[in-house]
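Why predict the complex rather than its parts? Because the way molecules touch one another can change local conformation, and only a joint prediction can capture that. The input here totals 318 residues.
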Amino acid sequence: MKTVLAELFGYLTPRAVVDVFQSYDVKLRGRHHSAPTLTLVEEAARGSAIVAGVVGFNGADVCGTFLLATTFELASLARPASLRSEPLSRASSVDWILVRDWVGELCNQAIGRIKNKIHRYGIAFEVSPPTAFSGSSLVFAQPKGPAANRFAFSAGAHTVWFCLDALFDAERQVTAGTEETALGEGNVVFFD
Amino acid sequence: MGKNVKIVVVDDSSVIRGQVSAALIAAGYAVIEAGNGAEGLQRIEENADVAMVLSDINMPRMTGIEMLIALKAGGKRAALPVIMLTTEGNLELMAQAKRAGAKAWVVKPFRDDLLVETVRKVAGPP
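Output of the joint prediction:
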């Protein structure tokens, strides 16, 4: 089955975000298309502090950025289970460093899932190391790509917002190969 | 503690390093952390008793693959076993790591018990 590249990214991106949070026991619900500023201003108005991470990606067929933003509290909840028993505090600068670090890693894992799944369609790209930032009134620039994926999910009282802003040939069609070209998340392979 | 099998954990995420370290320490291993490939090489150089390296790939300054290649380039620690721990699942990249001398590949996110079991198979018991 042939699929337009834009549709493929549109299909894979929200699922990757949901799956990454699910793997850390946070269930995301109620996806809706959303402009970032509106969502984050609403969060900030409720007293939330916002943490955002971004990674760049670049390949022959596609390039762009993937940005993920959420609250300090939800990012804390979405940490690995073994670390969750130690609560984090917004009053601690060390905890802010940990939360920013973790949101960058969540970005990295989300784009990694997209990369692994899209590789089967013959599309490859390199990903930059993530960077992350935080604040109470973050405003993001409008996406450059014509087919940017911008969605918000709810998780309890908190929001996860993401934007995959990619430049590619929106009409280019791709076909899934018959063989797996990437290993799935959580798998282990021994080489000897 | 000094007799425990010592593992260098290389990842630019301090939270991932914390997760890996907590799992390995609970299993009885000793852990040394590094934030990128260059730091990883430095920690290996500084600690002659390191038994294994567990490394991410996509990191600033020096990637995990670059670190692996540098480690295996003929230095005195070239035989040190290395496990890659990464979001990357690309089979071509896995083949590159295998050719460069990696012992195993784990795709993030990972289960702590499976990671410890993988380390146990490669580095031996703690």
